[in-house]
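Chain A, query sequence.
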Amino acid sequence: MKQLMQGNTAAARGIYEAGCCVASSYPGTPSTEITEEAAKYDEIYCEWAPNEKVAMETAFGASLAGRRSFCGMKHVGLNVAADPLFTVSYTGINAGMVICVADDAGMHSSQNEQDSRHYAKSAKLPMLEPSDSQEALEFFRRAYDLSEEYDSPVIVKMCTRIAHSQSIVETGERQEVPAKPYEKNIAKYVMMPGNAIRRHPVVEERMRRLQALAESIDINRIDEGSSNAVGIITSSTCYQYVKEACGDRFPVLKLGMIWPMPDEKIKAFAGSVERLVVVEELDPFIEEHCLTLGLKVEGKSLFPLEGELSQNIIAERLMLNVPEGLKLEEKIPARPPMMCSGCPHRGIFYTLNKNKCTVLGDIGCYTLGAVAPLSAMEMTLCMGASVSATHGFNKAGGKNAVAVIGDSTFMHSGMTGLANIAYNQSNSVVIILDNSITGMTGHQQNPTTGYNIKGDPAGKIDLEALCRAMGFSRVRVVDPYNLKECDDALKEELSSGEPSVIIARRPCALLKYVKHNPPLKIDTAKCVGCKSCMRIGCPSLSMKEGKAHVDETLCVGCGVCTQMCRFGAFQEGR
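Chain A, predicted structure.
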């Protein structure tokens, strides 16, 4: 059956059709929807793991037990999972194991735009790279067969545009794969030095076999062109841009298997054209490989190292005319992200700014606490770094430093940093912003919510009990809508001279089950136009004709602004 599918939905369909039985992931844009969509198939057990390392190890365990498995993550998540990644390359697998990594060129929702192709090369693992939704389905499905044939996990690399764009997909039936029997094999699976040193040659031999496969596999193909003046090597979303900008004018070598690359096919292709150009986003991965083959090639001399490419950029750098209808002439206005109306994080950041704290932050929608007018966050590095960095900052003599971290991020990688504070005793205040969900990636459950990926009741971690068990005697819960309560708690904990945890608990305002108050109104007779309410940066508030104005379509009646007004201008709505 043919249907229009988002790339991530097609990827989920691919792992379903391949007979995958276990999927464990941590949500991260742009990869999140793959596991969410996979969870709609009852034949696949799906879960959100606390972090990507745990997810990959879970998928490996399922493979070891004889069932096809999957784990998905965004590019920075692969950094977290790099430890098992490099060693599972040595052990190999039992049943097929597929790893999805989704890159984010352009940093639409990420703190960097690293190129995950380097992981495949460094870990000596095969990597496939689809260029549309149909290929996403096919490549994920085929990855399982490759995994089992070559005794190796297979990485499938997505990117923001392929993950979130839609194209026509032809679906098939699920292939029910019998469980492979687990056989005890200490030499293969116990990676102590004596065994690992004997597995390394196995890895190298596998790469030689995969190199031979790359030469013949049909997903590395040549699209013929009408002129051999230029030959283009490309992959992924860049293939779509090249075809839009060039049509059938030039031959194109499209690499569906991006690692290992087909050396002989590349050399033969280069010999058939007058000028060889590599079109790829981010690092010169293909280009540098071509240079090792002794080829004269152009790539990053024409195209930028940073950000996304487009058909316009490719046409401009190759001095081509873009076909009518494809050129984007208009500049699209920027729409900067902001905390939502009623966001429970707003009151905490206002309090931190008011107390002139040095706030070391973390990854989540609360990272927007760095944006004016709150401007309360001064550092964001990676998941969990807020807690560890605050400890280091305070041990180095820093003053008034506070860590802020979300509930999901705390479970991901904040606990070890908190253990360090408890063990090495710095006078550090850690604020856990508990909005009862994983907010930034679209409301996924986590170990503190009490529900699993399907919304069914699940184990629930008690944050207060956990922090006390880790050695904190000072643990308190505040309502971030109550500015005085937050201010008092912060002042007390900063002056306590002990490690402490403040849990700011209030569910995300966008959760469907959260009931809101009626929108507030302004008594214009009482409003003096002082703009004090504007300091919290709520999108529901603006100034009109010198008076505060509430947008009733956005306001959720949280009441934080009423605490800012000394003149009683805010009135409860009806």
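Residues 345-505 form a domain with the Rossmann fold fold (CATH 3.40.50.970). The first strand starts at residue 2 and ends at 6.
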